[in-house]
Amino acid sequence: MAAVTEPMFRHCYTRPTWTCVVDGDEWPCASAKSELRHQFGVRGRVFMDYFLNRLREARLDLPDEDDWLLVKRFVLWSPEDHR
Q: Would you say which domain of life the source belongs to (predicted)?
């Protein structure tokens, strides 16, 4: 199995706050979403795997955040064709 590498984005997150390093908004910010859509294109499974892994990590870093809000933030914004 090939190693999975972290994609490089200008609007990336910083941990443990999960904010954008460029604009300070909650990550994924609007610009990150645009970059991610471009990066992943129509590879829906890869897109969802990436965000489910980010959700798991964020859940550990943000234990006081509501689970449903984290799901909406990391998964439910994705384009219909990626679900």
A: Bacteria
